[in-house]
Amino acid sequence: MTGPLSGLRIIELAGLGPGPFAAMMLADHGAEVIRIEREGLISVPGDPMLRGRRSIALDLKWEHCRTAFTRLVESADGLIDPFRPGKLEALGLGPDRLQSLNPRLVIGRISGWGQYGPRRDEAGHDINYLALSGLLDAIGPADRPAVPLNLVADYAGGGMMLAFSMAACLREMAAGADKGRVIDCAMSDGAALVGSLMFALRNAGQWTHAREANLLDGGAPIYGCYRCADGRFLALGAIEPQFHREFLTLVGLVDDPRFASLLDRNQWPVQRAAIAAAIEAKPLDHWTAIFEGSDVCVTPVLALDEAVRDPHHVARGSFAEGALGPVPAPAPRYGPEPAPLAPPHRPGADGAAVLAELGFDEEEIEAMLSP
Question: Which residues form the signal peptide (predicted)?
């Protein structure tokens, strides 16, 4: 089965993190993606985010390579620009120029701070965008913020936002719009948007500035991680009354007077200590067996290599075998069968074929691929 984006061509200027993630999403869902490589990028062997592309190496500092790039743009529906603001303009390849060649081109510009604003030209990474969003201050133990991997700003607030906005704009073009949009996808904006619930709770007086003092940050006893006797951990998310009552029943605390109210924040430390003592008395396997089949929102905290063997993931085909080992399969899916993994990325391997399709002769192709 072809993906819903089949028939669309996306040009991806090589970057790190959110740009490749967005291109992977578009490719996984049927788009043809052609990646333009550049030297000096950090690379991860077997990186699954680079699957499903054809690849060409073009040095855009050279005029004949820019000629190849503009011809690619003329044939494309979308472009992913991961560069700092102003770089494409400095090359003479800004949105005005590119859309004069192809008015229907959707240009997705992904950057840390956006195309304008006081921090526009500053360097940054996920942790910086998350810090400025207000969310990093809310994550972690009471004494300091924690580093939640580079997932919130880079991928949720960056790559996923870019893939969604490009799909939205491409849909607009399919519906008859006469000019493509230029998307300003700032990870700092996206990180804040991902935290909309926290701002809503704060505005309603239901979220304090202190960490480990709120419902969803480890403060509430029924939402957090607990150590078992063997040093492994359980994740507990029994927020709703029916869930936390069943949980307390299974751990032997349902009649404990300390749990008369789970809404009294003053009782949370005592309740959390009681749950911790109960869970720490037995190993993880004991608790996994106790909670199996129950409706209590409890799961083991799995390591990466354990996750791929989990029976639920195995049944759904949530992981597939990549070039160097198991990787997450394309998601979401459109039926019970997972989509197969696209072929692995081969940097620059398709350059000659792509340029020939664009009408360049052998001499021109050799010059472009060996500037």
Answer: none
Contact present, 284 and 235 (Cβ < 8 Å): no
Inside any domain, residue 110: yes
CB 259 within 8 A of CB 271: yes
Per-residue pLDDT tens for 193-241?
A: 999 999 999 999 999 999 999 999 999 999 999 999 999 999 999 999 9
Whether residues 77 and 169 share a domain: the answer is: yes
The catalytic residues are 125, 154
Looking up residue 245, the CATH number of its domain turns out to be: 3.30.1540.10
Which secondary-structure segment (H or E) carries 36?
strand 32-37
What is the distance, to the nearest Å, from the Cα of residue 202 to the centroid of all Cα atoms in its chain?
A: 25
Query: Whole-prediction pTM value?
Result: 0.94
How many domains are contained in the chain? 2
Instruction: Tell me the average pLDDT across 237-251.
Output: 94
Model pLDDT for residues 52-75, shown as the tens digit of each residue: 999 999 999 999 999 999 999 999
Instruction: Give residue 297's domain range.
Output: 223-309
Q: Tens of pLDDT along 99-114? A: 999 999 999 999 999 9
295: in domain = yes
Q: Write out the two tokens for 176.
A: 């008859």
